[in-house]
Design goal:
Number of helices: 8
Largest sheet: 10 strands, mixed
Strand content: 25-35%
CATH topology of the largest domain: Aminopeptidase
Oligomer: single chain
Order of helices and strands: EHEHEHEHEHHEEEHEHE
Number of domains: 2
CATH superfamily of the largest domain: Gcn5-related N-acetyltransferase (GNAT)
CATH architecture of the largest domain: 3-Layer(aba) Sandwich
Number of strands: 10
Distance between the termini: 47 Å
Radius of gyration: 19 Å
Length: 255
Amino acid sequence: MELQEPCGFLPWDTAFFGKRIAQVNAHRLSSQMVDGVLEWCATHAIECIYLLADSDHAETVRLAEEYGFRLVDIRITLQCNTRDARARSINDFSQRVRVRPARQSDAATLKAIARTSYNDSRFYFDPCFPAESCAALYETWIERSCEDYADVVLVAEVNDQSVGYVSCHLPSNTQGGQIGLVGVESRNRSYGVGQTLIQYSLRWFCEHGVEEVKVVTQGRNIAAQRLFQSCGFLTHSVQLWYHKWFSGCAGQVQS
């Protein structure tokens, strides 16, 4: 049986950021594995390596710190059973919020929302990624989601103005459904738009026969966690995102 390489090259991240980027293939490390990761990175001229580590494995956390990996995010995965969610009615705010599938004409508005919606993400907390590149990343992400990356993007309208969105992905292989991006225009974040979008997305998943839906957010993003919990999601797992740079930019201050 062919042995799996310790890391995987990430061509999309590499092309987007202009740095050679890869990710460790395992969620848990040993001393021997770390040596293999570093050797692989040197051989492939990697400038940045991502590690998504299990938070409950003390040896991995110790080794990550010892070998100069920088903690950039706490990754919270939440899960909801759509059969339970069906019993929940769409909230009272839905009378002023209309939800529909995205249209091509929505692109500019959704990209503008995306630029300012993800300041809690790991990329913004890594000083080697310029803030402008981080904003452009999420613009590109929602644009691609509207094209074909997501199975549907639902858009929220208030007074005929697009004010938010949620992207939804149907199951692949044995995985459940996945909520990708959720974004709400800043002036409408206190009016139940996010909650309405999540509730409509769960209805969409249920209509497509999906029973389990997951969503990922940041440990520092308490507002997002409360939003998903209010819609019936419970914490499924907690992991740690680390980045290690080999190109000497780890001390830069993000602009």
